[in-house]
Amino acid sequence: MNISAASDYGVRAALHLADAYLKDANGLSTTEEISKAQDIPAKFLETLIRRLKEAGLVESRRGINGGHHLSMPPKEISIADVIRAIDGPLAAVKGERPESLKYKTSAKHLTSVWIAVRSSLRSVLEEVSLESVVKDKLPNSIKKATAQPGAWERR
Fold first, then answer.
1. Is residue 123 part of a domain?
2. In what helix (H) or strand (E) does residue 61 lie, and over which residues does it extend?
3. Which of 58, 99, 108, 117 is deepest in the core (most CB within 10 A)?
């Protein structure tokens, strides 16, 4: 899986908002604050915030005291939710859902592989909430996966 810059930035922005929420559920973070704290280009961040708002994950207030905040507690928002809001389905193949693909001859069982990839991504990304990342309380399955031999090695 290739995690796009947009998804990386979107997750980081959501984590910033999660941290702010955990400190003050009614507090607001400005685009400028998030941009500086997470080193995200401000114009790009505006687009990402809009996508997060459209997905119902973020709410915004305009004006001199305006800003952004999560629309629900960060324990209820998964990393998968944010990625879907930014880039769409977790495991699209050529922009299509894997179950809609039909292959022939020697590749006819490839759909099952793509479905398994999607299932694996879900088992990680849907299990990890924004709160668990901010508080460094990742699920045991994540800790086990990152402790596997070779997990940190590039291949």
1. yes
2. strand 58-61
3. 58
